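YM 10:42: Phenylacetate-CoA ligase sequence, as discussed on the call
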Amino acid sequence: MLKGLVGASTHTIYYKSPIFMQHAFTSAYGYKLKRERYSHLYRRALQRYVKGDFDREAMLTHFMNHLKRNISVYADIEIDEDDIFSSFLKLPMTAKADLRYALDARSCKQGQLRFSGTSGTTGESLAVYDSEYDRADRMAYLDYIKLKNGVPPFSRRASFTGQDLTPPRHRDIIWRYNIPMNQVLYAANHLTSRNIGNVYAHLARYKPVELDGFPSAIHMVAKYMLANNIIHPWEVKAVFPTAEILLPHVRADIERAFGAPVIDQYASGEGAPFIYGRRDGGYTIGHETGIFEFHKVGRHLYEMVVTSFINYATPIVRYKIGDQVEIDSDADYLNSYTDEVDLRKIFGRESDYLIGSNSNRVTSVGIARAVEGIEDKIIAFQFIQEDLKRFIVNLVVEADYDEKSDRLFKRRVVRRLGLDSDIEYRYVESIPREKNGKIRFIKNTVADAG
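YM 10:58: structure's back
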């Protein structure tokens, strides 16, 4: 974030500045972003979403014609406007290598372009172009989701982020003000059991209407509140976690602590369309933002293929994104254009599961059930699969985590992974974050390698 203000040297100047100047730097950059992101294009897009001015067939037809006219690799596609979805299904799938090595041939270089990148949990980066229109549509849809849940644009906000906000010697003051955006940013990378009390105290003084960012970081605050019998001391209208898998016990703790609904958001940094949570725990597909295709890979388990209507600079077309979801269906194939899709859970990447000793697949939600009933005694946990029968379990526990809780947890883990699995339990002070600032709850090197 801060690199963009002046250049690479900004970090050095920023880190050597007193904290009040770091607030000023952050706010100055926030002012720059506000001017760029919240233009008349944003306001027009938000009005369109709020009005419900959306014709699915017309949008797909417009998108297909954009591909043919402006993206060279699609110049020869055939379009039947009387049966536009059949024409769409004839488009080839897109692989990550296509976007990485043929970016120019897959891009429309018009408007105010920039690179928009994602680091991914595997560390394999990908950058695509987006335009001022793409950015406006994306920001407007994010605010549309929030508005639907009672949070108007520019409400007082607390964001838990992986950005480099604080220097290594930060004195546990890990927040910085972004005044133009009515926002405080908290450095999730530096959140620890030692400074969580200070972070909560600052949060309570600030009294944000909404919280967003990494659920693992928000959960740490919620756990601190619950442990100290602090239950929704001010009004929070909604919590919007993103970027990490939202586990059921994490959702429950956050909702109990803040007394507010947790509205999960899913959209890739590669420009994918949106899926967002509902208050009943299910998910809504953002039809205005694109098309999802679902290919069955297990019982109620589907792998997603995405096409985005909100990244015209580098269109994301039938892209196998590698994430999986649970759908209440037995069909081999579904899509969000012609089918009513009852999407119940988002599991994340294809490799976000463990392989038990009986070759059974254990999903993130399945393994998370090992902590049911003892969630208040386990702060965080992580499963690492090194080979088909070798596992490491990292545990961050409370002081009252006793032998009874430990036996219960281990018994449940063995039940899921198999009696002949080699499981090493490590009790650690914190779970290390990935380069992108996220905590990866499951790291399956067997699936990653495959």
